C-alpha cells in the first residue's frame, strides 16, 4: 500500500486504495485501447457488448495516460468518440463537439441540444484562453413576475424552459478552431440515437428515480419507457427523432435549429404544452465569447468563465482566503477541511450578489471575490476552533439551488485544451421531451431568482439574478484550464449544481496543494456546505465501480468538536473530471516526427481521470 500514487510523502491521508490498483490498469488500458481501437470509432462503441455486460471492457478504467491526447467524459462511449476525432487529426474543439453531441444522446438526462453550457478553450499556438458562454437565455416573453402565481413553474414544466444554446455554442467554437467537417462530428451521435445505445448503470439508476416524471410526459415515455416500463440498465434505448434532428443540424448547420425545421417543430411542441418559446427567441440567440477570466491560485494560473458563472470567482475567493494564511500548510489535515468549510460559507454569502453582468451591476461582488485584501478580512473572521450560525457570514439574499450537468476535459496532441460543462439543469430538465424532435428541454429558468421566492431561510431573493428577457441565470458551472509559465498543467471541472464549486475546489486543493495523485485527488471523499442550511455534508458512499468513499469517524469528530452539524450523504454530490500534464517525463515530440508548434511548448505525459462516482471512463488517442 505504499504510495506510488501519492506524491510528496502524502501517506497519512490515504482514503483511497483503489487508485493504487488503477495505475497499472490505466497503463494496460492504453495498450489495450491502442490495439483494439486502431483508427475506427465504431467497433467497440457501438457493439455495446463489452461495456456493461461482463464488466471487463475497454473502458473499465477510470484513469488512463497518453502522450498524444486524452478525453475524459461522463460516459466512456463519448470519451472514445472524442478520442477517435483526435485520431483523425481533429482539434480538441472538434473532439469536444462530437463528445458533447454523444453525451446529449446517451446521457440526455443531464445535457443535450435542448440545453446549454460553458466552454473554456485554450489554444496551444496562441496561448490564448477564451470563454464561450452558450448558456440558456430567458425568452423574450419572460418577465420578472412570471412565476408570481405559481412558483413551481419556474423549476418544472413548460414555463421553466429557457432558449437553448448548445448547438450555437458548439458551432461558434468549431468555426474558430475546427478542422474536420462539421457533419462528420455528428455521425457517431446520430448512429447512437437511431441504432440505439445501452443504458448505463448510472443512467439506469437515475431513470428509476425519475419514474414519475417520465411516465407523466408523452415524449419522455416514448424514449425511456417505450413499452410502459422504464428502461433498465443494459436495455437498448432508441431516440430516432433526436437522430433526425441531429442529422438536420449536421447537414444544414445550426440554422436548422435556430431558424429552420428543427426549431419550428421544437417551438410547436413547447407551445402545445403551454410554453412561451418562439422562433424569434431562437433566431435571436447569441453566443457570448470573451477572453477567459484569469486568476492566480496556489502559484498557478487558472483560466475560467466570467459571470454569469460564479465558478472562477468562487474558486478565486476560496484560494485567496487560503493564501491569506501565509502558510503553505494552511490547507492540510482536518483543520484544513474546517477552514475550507468556513471559506465556502463566506464565498456562498458573496456569490449571491452575482448575476448576468449584461443586465446587473455586479462589479462590487466581482472585485470583492477577486480581492486579496477582501480575502484577508474574511480569513481573519475564520476561527480555527469553532464555526458560526449562518448570519455571521453576512449574507443578504436567499440561496438558490442549481443542478445539473455533465463535464468533460479534452487535450489534443498539440496541447490545445477544452474544458466544457453542459447541462439541461435538473435531471431531465423541464421534464419535457419534445416528441417531434426527440430533444429533452432544459429548465434553466429555475436558476433565476424571483421576487416571491422567499426560501426557508426567510431572506429576500437576489435582485441581480431576477428574470429579464434575454438574460442568463447565475450558474455554478466551473470549467477551468490551469497553466504555469504558459505550459498546460491541468484541465478540470464538475457537474452537480451547487456542489460543483466545493467539489472542484477540493480536487484542486487535493492535487495542487495536498500532493495527491490525480486519481486519488478525484476519488477522495469530499465535504459540502452551501451556507444555508448550516450543515456540513460529507460523503460516505459506494461508487458505481464498487469503490467505497468514506469520510473517517475521526474527521467527522474533528468537525463536530468545532460546532458543525455534520450529516452523511450516501449519494454522489458532484462529479469531477480531471486531466493533468506531467513534465517530469517530458517528451521530445520533435524527435518523434511531429513538429507541431513554434512555441517553446513542452509535451508531457497526460493523465486523465473520470470520477468513479459516475460511470465515466476516459479514452486515449
Ligand atoms: C404550477 O406549475 C406546475 C408545473 O408546470 C404544474 O404542474 C401545476 O399544475 C401548476 N399549479 C397550478 C396551481 O397551476
Ligand atoms: C435580441 O437579443 C439582444 C441581446 O442578445 C437584445 O439586445 C435584443 O433586444 C433582442 N431582440 C429582441 C427583438 O428583443
Ligand atoms: C456599478 O456599481 C459600482 C459601485 O457599486 C459603481 O462604482 C459603478 O459606477 C457602477 N457601474 C455602472 C455601469 O453603473
Ligand atoms: C477557541 O479558542 C479561544 C482562544 O484562542 C477561546 O477563547 C475560545 O473559548 C475557544 N472556543 C471554543 C469553542 O473552544
Ligand atoms: C459510513 O457508512 C457505514 C455504513 O455503510 C458506517 O458503518 C460508517 O460508520 C459510516 N461512517 C461515517 C463516518 O459516517
UniProtKB/TrEMBL annotation:
UniProt entry keywords in alphabetical sequence? Acyltransferase, Hydrolase, Membrane, Transferase, Transmembrane, Transmembrane helix
Q: Can you tell me where the transmembrane regions are?
A: 20-41
Which reactions does this protein catalyse?
an S-substituted glutathione + H2O = an S-substituted L-cysteinylglycine + L-glutamate; glutathione + H2O = L-cysteinylglycine + L-glutamate; an N-terminal (5-L-glutamyl)-[peptide] + an alpha-amino acid = 5-L-glutamyl amino acid + an N-terminal L-alpha-aminoacyl-[peptide]
GO CC annotation terms, alphabetical: plasma membrane
* Catalytic site positions: 405
- Residues annotated for L-glutamate binding in this entry: 135, 423-425, 447, 475-476, 497
InterPro entries the UniProt entry points to: GGT_lsub, GGT_peptidase, GGT_ssub_C, Ntn_hydrolases_N
Q: What is this protein called?
A: Glutathione hydrolase
Q: Which organism is it from?
A: Cucumis melo
Lineage of the source organism?
A: Eukaryota, Viridiplantae, Streptophyta, Embryophyta, Tracheophyta
Tell me the name of the encoding gene: LOC103498319
Amino acid at each position: 500500500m505504499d504510495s506510488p500514487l501519492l506524491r510528496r510523502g502524502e501517506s497519512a491521508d490515504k482514503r483511497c486504495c483503489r487508485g493504487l490498483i488503477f495505475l497499472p490498469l490505466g497503463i494496460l488500458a492504453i495498450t489495450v485501447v491502442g490495439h483494439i481501437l486502431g483508427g475506427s470509432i465504431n467497433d467497440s462503441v457501438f457493439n455495446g457488448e463489452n461495456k456493461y455486460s461482463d464488466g471487463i471492457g475497454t473502458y473499465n478504467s477510470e484513469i488512463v495516460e497518453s502522450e498524444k491526447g486524452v478525453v475524459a467524459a461522463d460516459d466512456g462511449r463519448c470519451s472514445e468518440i472524442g478520442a477517435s476525432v483526435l485520431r483523425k487529426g481533429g482539434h480538441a474543439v472538434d473532439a469536444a463537439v462530437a463528445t458533447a453531441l454523444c453525451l446529449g444522446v446517451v446521457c440526455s438526462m443531464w445535457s443535450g441540444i435542448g440545453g446549454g453550457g460553458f466552454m473554456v478553450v485554450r489554444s496551444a499556438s496562441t496561448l490564448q484562453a477564451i470563454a464561450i458562454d452558450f448558456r440558456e437565455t430567458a425568452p423574450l416573453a419572460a418577465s420578472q413576475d412570471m412565476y408570481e402565481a405559481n412558483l413551481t413553474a419556474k423549476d418544472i414544466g413548460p414555463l421553466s424552459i429557457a432558449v437553448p444554446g448548445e448547438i450555437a455554442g458548439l458551432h461558434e467554437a468549431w468555426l474558430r478552431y475546427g478542422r474536420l467537417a462539421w457533419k462528420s462530428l455528428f455521425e457517431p451521435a446520430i448512429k447512437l440515437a437511431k441504432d440505439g445505445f445501452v443504458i448505463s448503470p448510472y443512467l439506469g439508476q437515475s431513470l428509476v428515480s425519475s419514474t414519475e416524471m417520465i411516465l407523466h410526459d408523452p415524449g419522455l415515455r416514448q424514449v425511456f419507457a417505450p413499452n410502459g416500463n422504464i428502461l433498465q440498465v443494459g436495455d437498448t434505448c432508441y431516440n430516432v427523432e433526436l437522430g433526425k434532428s441531429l442529422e438536420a443540424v449536421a447537414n444544414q448547420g445550426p440554422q436548422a435549429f435556430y431558424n429552420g425545421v428543427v426549431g419550428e417543430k421544437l417551438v410547436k411542441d413547447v407551445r402545445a404544452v403551454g410554453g412561451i418559446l418562439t422562433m424569434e427567441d431562437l433566431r435571436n440567440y447569441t453566443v457570448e465569447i470573451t477572453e477567459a477570466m484569469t486568476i492566480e491560485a496556489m502559484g498557478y494560473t487558472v483560466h475560467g468563465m466570467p459571470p454569469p458563472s460564479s465558478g472562477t470567482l468562487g474558486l478565486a475567493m476560496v484560494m485567496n482566503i487560503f493564501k491569506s494564511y501565509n502558510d503553505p500548510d494552511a490547507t492540510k489535515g482536518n483543520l484544513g477541511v474546517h477552514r475550507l468549510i468556513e471559506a465556502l460559507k463566506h464565498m456562498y454569502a458573496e456569490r449571491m450578489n452575482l448575476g448576468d453582468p449584461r443586465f446587473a451591476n455586479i462589479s462590487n461582488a466581482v472585485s470583492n471575490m477577486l480581492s486579496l485584501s477582501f480575502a484577508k478580512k474574511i480569513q481573519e473572521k475564520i476561527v480555527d476552533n469553532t464555526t458560526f450560525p449562518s448570519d455571521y457570514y453576512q449574507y443578504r439574499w436567499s440561496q438558490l439551488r442549481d443542478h445539473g450537468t455533465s463535464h468533460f476535459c479534452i487535450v489534443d496532441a498539440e496541447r490545445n485544451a477544452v474544458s466544457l460543462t453542459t447541462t439541461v439543469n435538473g435531471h431531465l430538465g423541464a421534464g419535457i421531451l419534445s416528441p417531434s424532435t426527440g430533444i429533452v428541454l432544459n429548465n434553466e429558468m429555475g436558476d433565476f431568482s424571483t421576487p416571491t421566492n422567499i426560501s426557508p431561510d426567510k431572506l429576500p431573493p437576489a435582485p441581480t439574478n431576477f428574470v429579464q428577457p434575454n438574460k442568463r441565470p447565475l450558474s455554478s458551472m466551473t470549467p477551468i484550464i490551469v497553466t504555469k509559465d504558459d505550459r498546460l498543467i491541468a484541465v478540470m471541472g464538475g457537474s452537480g449544481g451547487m456542489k460543483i464549486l466545493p467539489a472542484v475546489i477540493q480536487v484542486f486543493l487535493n492535487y495542487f496543494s495536498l500532493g495527491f495523485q490525480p486519481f486519488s485527488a478525484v476519488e477522495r471523499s469530499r465535504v459540502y456546505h452551501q451556507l444555508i442550511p448550516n450543515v456540513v455534508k460529507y460523503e460516505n458512499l459506494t461508487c458505481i465501480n464498487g469503490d467505497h468513499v468514506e469520510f473517517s469517524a475521526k474527521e467527522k469528530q474533528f468537525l463536530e468538536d468545532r460546532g458543525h452539524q455534520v450529516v452523511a450523504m450516501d449519494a454522489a454530490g458532484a462529479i469531477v473530471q480531471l486531466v493533468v500534464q506531467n513534465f517530469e517525463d517530458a517528451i521530445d515530440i520533435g524527435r518523434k516526427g511531429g513538429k507541431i508548434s513554434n512555441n517553446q511548448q513542452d509535451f508531457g505525459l497526460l493523465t486523465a481521470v473520470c470520477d468513479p462516482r459516475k460511470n465515466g471512463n476516459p479514452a486515449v488517442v
